[in-house]
Amino acid sequence: MSTIIRFWKPYNVLTKFTDDQGRPTLADYIDIPNIYAAGRLDLDSEGLLLLTDDNRLSHRLTDPKFAHPRTYWVQVERIPDEQALNQLRQGVTIKGGRTRPAEARLLAVPPDLPPRPVPIRYRKNVPDCWLELTLTEGRNRQVRRMTAAVGHPTLRLVRHAIGPVTLAGLQPGEWQPLDAPAVRALKNSTQRK
Predict the structure, then answer these.
(1) What pTM did the predictor assign?
(2) Is 42 tagged catalytic?
(3) pLDDT surpassing 90 at residue 143
(4) CATH code of the domain occupying 1-66+164-193
């Protein structure tokens, strides 16, 4: 039986278990042997990580050919218009080429998130808003590069979901094993479409 846990990676924590510079890592939160993150989040990003000892599942979650959806809540500078949202939906050119089309929508109200330990840059004359973006690939700093490419730099980035698994019920730094129905739903969602 494989081990699969969901974890809310806090801001400023590395997506690995060791660091020769002494920065916070997954080991500061999780003490389960032989599990590894299926994917990554940048140091300055927050949110859902799945960790497992199941190499096949990890491959299916991270290999772009499986087009596994990941949903992000993204606080950006200014309010994107329909043209900017359509650019995100159609794919934009960033370092490494054109992105796959994404689902993109404005959130009517900000998501209910705990405050970040390091405050978000605030400029009194520049409004901000929250987007929900769903991607099926995971290039380095892709969300940040996509929002910047359409003129809306990212201020805060939180991964809310990986396929059917979400952050619901977790707080930053907390983890929980997936129950049997969640494992089945996750594995079913990784089957090639």
Answers:
(1) 0.93
(2) yes
(3) yes
(4) 3.30.70.580
